[in-house]
Write a structure and sequence with these properties.
Immunoglobulin-like; alpha+beta; 9 helices; 12-stranded mixed beta sheet; TIM Barrel; single chain; disordered N terminus
Length: about 375
């Protein structure tokens, strides 16, 4: 009996984990055609800036969450723990995390945060060879140094009310200049659980990479897990599992922002992700009726809120239903006649390809009739 319970527990919570240290609620999304799907958190902090944990803890948390890559992006300028932890080398947090991760299947991306008041705001530079040259008096000089190192730079929490009192992000001349000179490449549409559709508008209008990050300063358990939440992540669609491939994919804008049951991304990547996440098995017609029974399985760690927008309606089911992460749901379709092929379409209400725009996923099913 105990062995059977353990098997059910692993099947329900395990999601075919990739890391031996994964926790009971790991983040998992399927690959899409032609690409690997890597779960990343590219904006996190430790005691080497204004975070409250040692860099090794960030690695351990990422392993428990089943992440594929993280970046410790310490504030270059803002160093509240400097008296207790003096470190003239701004690469130190990265080095400690890299050492901790050396025996694990986790990619550590070198990066730092350029921190200024509005209108410059906060920006993360990734894939740096050396963070120290970015410690400049002038923000523009810091961006120029990042460009020299071929860094991928993204705009952090542009809707943050501490810098934008109305919570509405706006492009200033500074951002416009960086985008034009190819020194600003991405933007957070989700930061610390806050989704800003205005940031998504900027991403689409300015052709920037869509990002989601935890921006965690305390324990992940404290900020997210003990509240029943998963950390926000950027899903990056790569050609292989490597830092070089991650960098290529970020510059190519192959991403989806994910936070619990919220998914935000360009249609060309969000639709394949949703399609790969949902498996439909045809169980056949019920007895001698014209009601087709099907079973849906959600293979990702996000709940999927779906609305039936097919030509066919449901029997004894609501047209709007939640397909919970890692679970199955049985639906009954009224096909009017017993037919050999059924086309189904679902609007993903928790997903956005543009502000207030939901993608529609379609499936063609063989009923075996």
């Amino acid at each position: 009996m105990k062995a059977r319970f353990l098997l059910v527990f692993v099947t329900f919570f395990g999601f075919a984990q990739n890391h031996s240290h994964s926790g009971v609620n790991p983040i998992k999304f399927p690959n899409i055609e032609g690409y690997l799907t890597l779960s990343t958190d590219l904006h996190i902090h430790s005691v080497f800036s204004d975070g409250n944990v040692w860099p090794t803890i960030r690695v351990q948390e990422a392993l428990m969450d089943n992440l594929d890559a993280i970046a410790l992006t310490e504030h270059l300028e803002y160093q509240p723990h400097l008296a207790d932890i003096p470190h003239p080398d701004r690469n130190r947090a990265y080095e400690l995390a890299l050492e901790e991760a050396k025996d694990h299947d986790l990619l550590i991306i070198p990066g730092s945060e350029i921190t200024r008041s509005a209108p410059v705001g906060h920006n993360n530079a990734l894939f740096l060879a050396d963070s120290n040259p970015l410690l400049q008096d002038q923000a523009q000089d810091a961006f120029d140094q990042a460009k020299k190192q071929d860094a991928f730079v993204f705009w952090n929490h542009p809707s943050w009310s501490a810098q934008k009192k109305d919570g509405n992000p706006e492009l200033d001349d500074f951002q416009k200049k960086q985008i034009k000179q190819k020194k600003l490449h991405g933007i957070e549409v989700i930061n610390f659980g806050a989704y800003a559709e205005e940031s998504l508008s900027i991403a689409l209008e300015e052709d920037l990479t869509i990002m989601a990050t935890s921006d965690v300063h305390d324990l992940i358990e404290w900020d997210y897990a003990n509240k029943g939440l998963q950390r926000p992540v950027t899903l990056v669609f790569t050609k292989e599992r490597s830092i070089a491939s991650l960098k290529e994919a970020l510059f190519a804008k192959r991403t989806v922002a994910a936070y619990n049951d919220l998914l935000v991304g360009r249609e060309e990547f969000l639709l394949p992700l949703l399609k790969a996440s949902i498996e439909i098995e045809v169980d056949g017609y019920v007895a001698d009726t014209k009601i087709l029974k099907i079973t849906l399985t959600n293979h990702c760690s996000s709940d999927l809120l779906l609305e039936n927008v097919s030509a066919f309606t449901f029997y004894e089911n609501s047209p709007v239903f939640n397909l919970e992460a890692g679970t199955q749901k049985t639906l009954q379709i009224k096909t009017i006649d017993r037919i050999s092929e059924v086309n189904l379409s679902f609007k993903a209400l928790g997903a956005y390809t543009a502000p207030k725009t939901h993608p529609t996923i379609s499936f063609t099913l063989n009923t075996k009739e």
